[in-house]
Specification:
Blueprint (H helix, E strand, L loop, with lengths): L10 H6 L6 H15 L11 H8 L3 H13 L3 E4 L3 E4 L14 E3 L11 E11 L2 H6 L7 E11 L2 E11 L8 H6 L4 H9 L5 E9 L3 H6 L8 E10 L3 E10 L4 E3 L5
Antiparallel strand pairs: 1-2, 3-10, 4-5, 5-6, 6-9, 7-8, 8-9
């Protein structure tokens, strides 16, 4: 019977995981480090399990366990007969991964691409709430934008989004309007930022007169307010947004495990 030992201690190993963590978790941390550094970009294949096992001097079983967990977290995608690829928000089946609003019949994909209208996009200074959410200092530069998402020609979601200004330098309303793909896919290709997880808070609210007008509401209608904080690798917050959702023809659908 043989036992597997941890890889020889290196600066990168020490930085990626504590010595007492399970070996596969240490390998997972090393793979995450390569993902974060851009060694393997969204949509591209990563080395095979055999190659990674040789690289980290561990068994393929240990690598497989690390890769399985990253795939379960939607960071990697296994494709039968092709290998393992870095997940990307540009793929059709994950475009609405963080958007849990579903139409009463069918799904968001069945309604065709969302129509996006950028209301405004400006650079400003982070107030206390934004700074806290994005782990910035008060007064740091942030990008603030508002947009409306329509499905089937009906304005359905009004969003206000805050992004770290230094990270998203150069992002403009014109650039956002010109791109018809998912915003998170644009973040990947233009800024090297991939949103890997998010947490949300929900409550019912009454819209202001301006908000009701932007969503073309003609009668008083309560909306679902969804505050989302999105993170890139290693739990670094990269986006804070507040969405107002119409639920007269849609519902919030979230699967709990």
């Amino acid at each position: 019977m043989t036992t597997e030992t941890s890889p020889a201690p290196t600066a990168s190993t020490a930085a990626s995981a504590p010595a007492f963590s399970p070996l596969y978790q240490q390998i997972k941390g090393l793979v995450l480090k390569s993902l974060q550094s851009g060694e393997w970009k969204p949509g591209e294949p990563i080395p095979s399990e055999f190659e990674l096992a040789a690289r980290y001097k561990v068994s393929q079983g240990t690598v497989r366990k690390a890769i399985d967990e990253l795939a379960q977290n939607n960071l990697l995608i296994r494709r039968q007969g092709k290998g393992t690829f870095v997940a990307t928000h540009a793929e059709q089946h994950v475009q609405y991964r963080f958007l849990k609003l579903k139409p009463d019949t069918g799904d968001l994909n069945s309604q065709g691409p969302a129509q996006r209208f950028i209301i405004d996009c400006k650079r400003t200074r982070a107030n206390a709430d934004v700074a806290k959410a994005l782990s910035l200092r008060g007064g740091d530069a942030v990008l603030q934008l508002r947009r409306v998402l329509s499905f089937g020609g009906v304005p359905t979601i009004l969003e206000e989004i805050w992004l770290p200004g230094a990270t998203f330098k150069g992002l403009t309303a014109e650039r956002l309007s010109a791109d018809q793909g998912p915003m998170y896919a644009l973040f990947e290709t233009e800024f090297g930022i991939r949103m890997v997880r998010a947490k949300e808070r929900l409550r019912a609210v009454n819209p202001s007169e301006e908000e009701a007008g932007l969503l073309q509401l003609t009668t008083p209608t309560p909306l679902l307010s969804v505050e989302r904080l999105s993170f890139t690798y290693h739990d670094t917050p990269m986006e804070w947004r507040r969405g107002l959702y119409r639920t007269d023809t849609h519902y919030y659908d979230n699967e709990l495990n």
